[in-house]
Amino acid sequence: MKLRQLRKLSIRPQNGNGKDLCGLIANLKNLESLTVEMTSKEEILDLLSLSSPPQYLQRLYLTGNMKKLPDWIFKLKNLIRLGLELSGLAEEPIRVLQASPNLLEILLTGTYDYELFHFEAGWFPKLQKLLLWDFIAVKSVIIEKGAVPDIRELRIGPCPLLMEIPIGIEHLKNLKLLKFAGMVKQVYYMTKDENWGKVTGHIPDVHQIY
Prior knowledge:
This protein is of the alpha/beta class and 210 residues long. Helix content is 13%, strand content 26%. Strands 1-2-3-4-5-7-9-10-11 form a nine-stranded parallel beta sheet, with no helix packed on it.
């Protein structure tokens, strides 16, 4: 198979030359799935110079140190799954990613120092699965009415400072699974809240893994 006909690529760059990497990706016109993983989350991942991303890209997974998400990500009309394990981002990822309204699945791994995730009304109208993994600084999750209306699965944790029930979770009428990971003490405090049953009673599967 010719390189340009590739539909799936997983690559671990060794030299940090962003222009060479962007040149390679730009030539893969039929690419549907792309994983770029630096050797560590502290190593610079530079994809800003990619001017012509593969337009058929459906799945994108990035690991590395990135100060800013490339603008071309928001131009990918076919992108439905996005995974980010990035350090160094100066911008709050949820606020930026809401510019990609066709996303069905988002995985964010916590290398950021954000204390709050705030989902505003109208954001992510098609999102079905959200994973917020290993955010050591997050204290609150706020979900406005009209945000992520079609979400089916929400996984959170470990988030050692998140002691309160995600605010607005009662608005997520299609939510089938709420899972907490590595948050025994935190979930204990949540269940002691007098509103716990009222705001989570509509969710068929609520549990935690250790």
